[in-house]
Amino acid sequence: MAALSIAVAGAGIGGLTAALALARRGHTITIIERRTGFTEVGAGLQLSPNASRILMDLGLGAALRRVVTEPPQVVVRDLGSGRPIGAVALGAFMRERFGAPYWVVHRAELQTILLDAVRSTPSVRLVMGRTVETVEDRADRAELTFVTGNGARESTAFDAVIGADGIWSTVRQSLGDCRKPGYRGSIAWRATIDRNRAPAELAGDETGLWLGRRGHVVHYPISGGRLVNIVAITKSPSPVDGWAAPGEGRDLLAGYANAAAALRKLLAEPEQWLRWSLFDHPVTSLAKGRVALLGDAAHPILPFLAQGAAMAIEDAAALASVLDADAQTVPSALSTYDSQRRDRVSKVQQAARQNGRVYHMGGLMGFARNQVMRRLGPEGMATRYAWLYDFRLLA
């Protein structure tokens, strides 16, 4: 197996997973990250079996088990009345049905585990404080230009460049896609609290999902059960700036004035809320020549299916699986990656959009949604997404 020199632009979950998976295949990796340090405040994420399976295959299972929680189910409630609507089986059902767990984790803890693995891998070099400016695809190499913190510009050639640089990806623009991501009319508020501050009826191990016409709320325990992660979605005609804009709790509570008492009590607990706006972008090409995209750079996914991180992890594994080749065949390998991933990520992106509409149904449509959930039952609700959770890489 020939070793390739590969640059990964971005040291988020997808970029770190890609670097680790590619290094395990014998390649030499340079990760280029614009930040000078790593901070993730108040953010949880879900690792469904299609993602946890890959992380365990990379040897991270033992480290993850020390920080994850494994909710036994999702309890779905009506946001206004608090009455149960239905449930989704997780826990033992997921492990038995799909051969891997459904975990929830603090993003910072997952990132730390990935960073530790990357830093202990000699063939991976992590370069911080560098901003990717351009990527030029050539016949025999891909040239990446970045700018240092003091304004110096440097260029380096690689056998391949992977863009894991997020929804506003510079690498995607280098592939010729200069369209701006589209704002989808909603803002996500996120916070974490100590678990002992949650209302007793909401402090269990399960994930809570509250559905209403004007928004919805998700909460689940993270950090080994010590904290509760809370995400509340509100409608807004205009976006907020950045990924961590401060929000006033009283403004959020005003939007949830008609919520059930237990939910309002939960939403009143956080001392700090951070907000980010929900954008997505049509899936087009995931690769061209010696340049490929993964995660939000390729296919930003709304959080209504809890698959943003999972799809980036899948992309990383898929890239590593095709790049067992010499430098001359990189364009062909990346074309294979594109053809393998495009339909799947498009389907997931559309399913997430549809879930957003379903979550906010009211009237007769909401009544029909609730009846379907009750009829399917917890295991039926989980099995609806067998196509998603049972993902395996092509041989």
How would you sum up this structure, described in words?
The protein is built from 12 helices and 19 strands. It is of the alpha/beta class and 395 residues long. The chain has a single domain (5-180, 281-389), classed as 3-Layer(bba) Sandwich (FAD/NAD(P)-binding domain), CATH 3.50.50.60. An 8-stranded mixed sheet has the order 5-4-13-14-15-12-17-16. Helix 1 (13-24) runs parallel beside helix 5 (107-119), helix 1 (13-24) runs parallel beside helix 9 and helix 9 packs antiparallel against helix 10. The two termini are 17 Å apart. One of its GO terms (molecular function) is FAD binding. This is Salicylate hydroxylase.
Set out the fold topology.
Layout: E1 5-9, H1 13-24, E2 28-33, E3 44-47, H2 49-57, H3 61-65, E4 73-78, E5 84-89, H4 91-98, E6 103-106, H5 107-119, E7 124-128, E8 130-137, E9 142-148, E10 153-158, E11 160-163, H6 170-174, E12 182-194, E13 207-211, E14 215-222, E15 227-235, E16 245-247, H7 249-255, H8 261-268, E17 273-280, E18 287-288, E19 291-293, H9 308-322, H10 330-359, H11 363-383, H12 386-389
Parallel strand pairs: 1-2, 1-11, 2-7, 4-13, 11-19
Antiparallel strand pairs: 3-6, 4-5, 8-9, 9-10, 12-15, 12-17, 13-14, 14-15, 16-17, 18-19
Helix pairs in contact: 1-5, 1-9, 2-9, 9-10
